[in-house]
Structure formats: C-alpha cells, structure tokens
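Work package 3, deliverable 3.1, input record:
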Amino acid sequence: MALARATGTASAARRHLSPVTRSILFLSAAYLILFAALSWLAPNFASEGNLLNILRQISMIGISGVGLTAVIVAAEIDLSVGSIAAFSGVCLAYLAVRWGLPLPLAVAAALAIGALAGVVTASLRVLFRIPTFITSLALLTALRSGAFLVSGGFPISPMPPGFEFWGNGWIGPLPAPFALLLAIAGVGWFVMARTTLGRAVYAVGGNEEAARLSGINVPLVKLGVFAASGALAATAGVLFASRLNSGTPTVAQGMELDVIAAVIIGGTSLFGGAGSVVGTLLGALFMATLRTGMVLIGVSPYSQGVISGMVIVLAVLLGAVQLGVRR
Amino acid sequence: MPHLLEMEGISKAYPGVQALSGVDFALERGEIHALCGKNGAGKSTLIRVLGGVVAPDGGRILLDGEPVALASPAGAMARGIVVVHQELSLVPGLAVAENLFLGRPQAWLVRRGPILAAARAVLSRLDSAIDPAAPVASLSIAQAQTVEIAKALAREPRILVLDEPTSALAEEDAERLLTILRRLAGDGVGIVYISHRLAEVERVADRVTVLRDGRTVASLETGAVDRRRVVELMLGEELSHDAEFSPRVPSREHVVLRVRGLARRGVVEDVSFDLHEGEILGIAGLVGAGRTELVRLIFGADRPDAGRVELAGRHVARPTPRAMRRMGVGFLPEDRKRQGLVLGLPVRENLSLAALGRISRFGLVQGRRERTLVESLVRDLQVACASPEVPAGTLSGGNQQKIVIGKWLARDPRVLILDEPTRGIDVQAKAQIFRILERLAEAGVAVVFISSELEEVMVVSHRILTMAAGRIVRESVRREASLAEILLSATGAA
C-alpha cells in the first residue's frame, strides 16, 4: 500500500494547485463571466471611460489591500485602515496648507503617521498580547475623531498646485493612482513571494510557535506588516486628498470593510498562513466592477448592498468548499 | 453466544488509496484486543468505520450477531461504541465535570452540584483524585488523558476504543492506565487497544490483530507470540537485525554545551551537565519530571530564573531561539503539529524555514539554492512525499518528524535537541530516525534525546540523565544502567 499511497499522492501532486492559486483561477473565471454579462446587460459598461473609472476607483482600496493582505496572512487584522487614510490625508493638508511645508516633506510625514499607527497596533500585540482586532478598532474610532480635530471639521484646501496629478492625472493610458497601485502591488507581490521576509510572514501566520522555535523574529515580522499596512493606508489617504484637492476628515468611511472584502474574496485566509496580493487585486476589481455594473443596469441602491453582501459570502463559501470542509 | 462485535470484509477506498481491503475483526465481551500495524496500515480507518465517522464501501458490522449500520458518531455511541482518539478533545476553559458530560442531554438549566457528584463517581472508577471542578487547562497531560477516558466511561460503553492512549504518558501513568483497562475488561467491556508500544500490548492484551496494507495479516493470542514476531508481521519481512544500535562511543574531550545551575521556579531546579561533541545524551524521566521544560530553557523557548548556558565555551547571556540558532543549536519540540511545523505550507518551505539566511542573498530567496538544499534533505532523510510542494500536514507522522529534523540539518547544527522525536510514529520511521541520530553523532553533532519510552533512551544514548521533580537524580553510562534502576530513580524510589 505504501506504493499505492505514493502513486496516489503523486497524481494528486500533479493536479496539486494551492488553494490560493485555485481561488485566483476561480475568481478570474468568475470575473470574465461578470464582465461578459455586464457588457451585454449595460450597453455603456464596456466603454473606455467607464472601465478606466473602475480602475481609478479600486486604486485606493487596492493599495491599502496590498498591506492588509500581509497583515491577514500573518493571522492578524487591521480595522483602522480607513481612519488612517482620513487622518493622514488631513495631516498632509494641514502640514502643506497651514504650515506651508514643502509637498514631498508633507507626504513623507503623512506616510510616517500611517506607519506609526500600524506600529502602535503591532506593539500592543507584541508587548502585551492585546488582540489587533481590539487595538485597531480603537484606532478606527480615535483616528477618525483625530481627523476632525485636526481639520476643525472642514476640508483643508486648496492643496498646492500640481498635487492633483496623483489622484486625477494620467500616466500613459492609465489613471495615475492605478499606475501607482500596479507598482505597489508588484513590489508587494515580490516581497511576499520571493523574499525571506515574505516567507517569515507566511510562517508566522501559519504557525506562530513553530516560526518562533525556528528562530524567526516574530515581533519584527508583525511590526513590519503593520507598519507597511499603515503606510499604504496613508498612501490611499494622500490619493484621496489629491483627488478631492483637500484634506477631508470624512473620506474613506468604511473603507476597511471594502479592503477586507477584497482580501478575503481574493482567497487570503482569515486564519492566516495563506493568501496573495494578486488575489486581493482581483477581489477589489471584482467588487468595484460589480458595484458599477449594478449602478449602470439600474439596480436600486437599496438592493446593491444586499447583492454585494451575498457575493462576499458566496466567495468565502466557495473557498471553504475548496479547502474541503470535511469533519 | 455471538461475538460482541464482528466486522466482516470491511473495505474502504479513498482517492488513490485502498485504505482497507476486506478486513475481518472480532471482539469478545471482557476482551482487550490490540490492533497493531505501521502508520498507514489501516488502523485509523478501521476505527473511523467502527466509530461511525466514515462509511465503509463494503463489508458488514454485527453487534451481538445482529447486522448494524453505523451511520454517524452519535449512532455508534448510541450503540455503546465509544472511541477515545489520540488527540485530546477537551475544552480547556471548562471544568473537568463539564467536559465529562459535554454534549449529553441535560436539563436546560445547568446545576453544578449533581454534575460534580456524577463526575466524582466516574473519576473514582479510575482511581483518580482529579478535582472535578478544576478547569481542564490546569491539568497535566496525563491528567487530561485520564479525563478523556473518564469522559468515555461516563457514556457507559460496551465497546471502548483507545487510540494510542499512552503515547503522551510516562511509564508510571501508562501502567496505571493499563491496570484500569484490565478492570474495565473484567466488568465485561470489550476494549480495542491501539498502541505502538509492543511491550504494553504484550502485557495488557488478550489478542493481537495485525494489519498491513489494509488487510488483516494475523489475529493471535498474545501468549502465543513474541514481540519480534509481531514486528515482523507488521513490517511484512523478516527483521534482518534487531533494531540493534551501536553508535561509536564519543571521545568526550570537547564540551559543546555546558549547563550550570539552570532553574525555573516550580519546574526545573538547579540542573547542571555537560554535553560533548559526538555524544548522544538521553534524558529519562516521567511526564512532569521537567525534561521538556529543561530543554526549552536551554533553547531559550522559555526564560530561566537562574543559571547559565555555555556553547563551545562561550556564555550565552540571554538564550532565545534566535540566538541559539545562530550559535548552532537546533530544537525539535515536543508537539510537531503545534510547535514543529507550519502544516499548511509546503514541505519545501518548512525545510528551509530555519535556514532562510543560507538560501538567500540580500533577503531574496534563491530558488535554485533552496531546491538543491531541499532535494538533498529529502533524499538523505528518506522523506516519503510525492513532491516537496505538498503541504507538510499531508505527510504521515514519521515523515513530518523527519522534516522537523531536516529543518535543522539544513543549518549543519553543532547541537541538536530532540524532545520526543519518536512519539506516535511507526517502527520503520523510528528505526530511520535512530539511524539519522547515529550518523549525526558520528559526524560530531552533539545530540540531546528525550523519550518517554525508556527502552528507546537506553538503546540510543551514550549517557543517560534521569530527571525527577525538576532535578537530575541519576547519571548513568550506556550499558551500565538497567531499565529497572532508571525507572526506580525516575519514580523517586532510589
């Protein structure tokens, strides 16, 4: 039977695709079907303007999603990304407009603020074992409120000239924020898939104790993913500020939910240890396309949320079935 | 009178594997019937069929001569078949008593008094002094195992199935368990007993059924066979040599690891010893003697209250797994699934996990270097896996353990600490792991070897430290110590 087993698993290995790869293939197929259906149902869906608009829409969610993918692969969660985006965007405007700080410096400061927020969450986790769900939930509330405090409740504007390029401009044929997303996602994919740091993230998320006993610096890995996630959420905040030409305290309300949905639909496991940046991009694209499509074919706004919600559950359900929910 | 249980021609196929092909098995009232076989021989599948967890493809099951269908675990339990699995299935946060009656029909309002009383009654059948109000999390592994068996007893089983019940227990606790099983059998319960410990099987079982490759190869009266014959039947070939093992005796010139006065309150008291190049040092003792705790302190997995650790003459100021790794120490922890492996990641990534620095440049993993490393480890350790890309969790226990060892061999360690490397793995894999240790020692690696099976420690080690109550109570050199003497020291009687 040893032989039977060996050959059995050998054929299984030939067919073997990791669950993450499988969900990416599955999601791609589902996306093509959705795309075809919408092109047929809504005549102006497949127009260049609409498609580029979708790409612009997913840029902020995608950029934050790259960081959150790493956090969730490490078996943690960051609920504060939307508030980090708002807070760092407002701080950017404050520094650039009120203080007259040069733009590059102000942007760097905004990104540092985002990274710092991530480091706070990770530090409390590492030092005092406070679940990141709790700390980031607290930050979600506190930073949103902070954004109102800093701005006094009103948008800070106008931003210095030229700044609107990052949210509204074009790089070649692509919307500038989307080009930025592609670059960030490329780096994110490379770090997760090809570097020792990425390996460590998967190992920590898959089995923290085994990783620690293998000599992996678990606290550093956690600080790293949260700092990255915070900085990327702040990047999204900078883009919002550019797009609106102001630091607005109300932007990115509930963005964390869209980002988490994109990550999970993309096949990343909420239990950690498995997932990919590519899946997250597809997840974000899928949700934004669905939403735009629903608007175009005139689905009532009241129903849109219900449909989006069902799609999320369906995607996770299919993932669970793939993994084999045998008990 | 019909048999209590009869399983006839049971077959079960999984994709790519014929797990059982026409297995026959019979159990009488009051009988302890051992089920033996290598990992993958079909024992677990047979038990799953009996427990109603999987439905067989063919064959029939008779209880008291009546054919029955065991469609679900609940159905099997309703007919008095209770399975105690190898892994504990207790809820740590609940009290012992609550665990005992978990999932049983009760009044909707939980009243603590009657449950505690009932729990006390069940535990007393096991001669156990465990407090039924204590949370399970506060128990030792041996106590938790007792609770697990009490939970089975609380269901008044007619057929009790125990899968490796002693694998986590030290000799003394195992001995007590065997006595209890004899008594239960005396009450008329039919017991199916699965164990890799053949000495126990010999002592406790009335009959032995040996499975190999999903078939019944023999069903014998225990008195009529010796251990060697059972092993031959399990392996399906004559043993060319007994697992005779004679590592070259090391010179004991170079001290690689020096431990002085190491202590952690309540678990390890003032432990000092030297470990030499090329030496295999066994640590014997009962569960709770502090063996695991000691090696975890040495590797820096836990923090000591006092004492010092020196490696190759250099004092390690604050041992952490990272610092010890850098200084050439490898550690195979007690629980390979929870502490040793990332089960969801491929074999390849597990093997390279501790050696990422060696296969990367500027933080980038060099694919070719990694593949070369992994291929040579898989070959050297004879890891049976279809491909290094399958998740580590899909391998058998023995092969998983080889991966945990391989993870450290990838770094060419000077010291390798192995905590229970042979727990729950089959005879063949065990022999292979012993060979690996022998080879490592000959190459100059210093090895610390912990096992709850005393015979193993005696066979493998050049020198044996025996621990009791957190202290080293005896040091013996290979061949000079007898099993009985070590056991006496371990129980604190000498």
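The radius of gyration of chain A is 21 Å.
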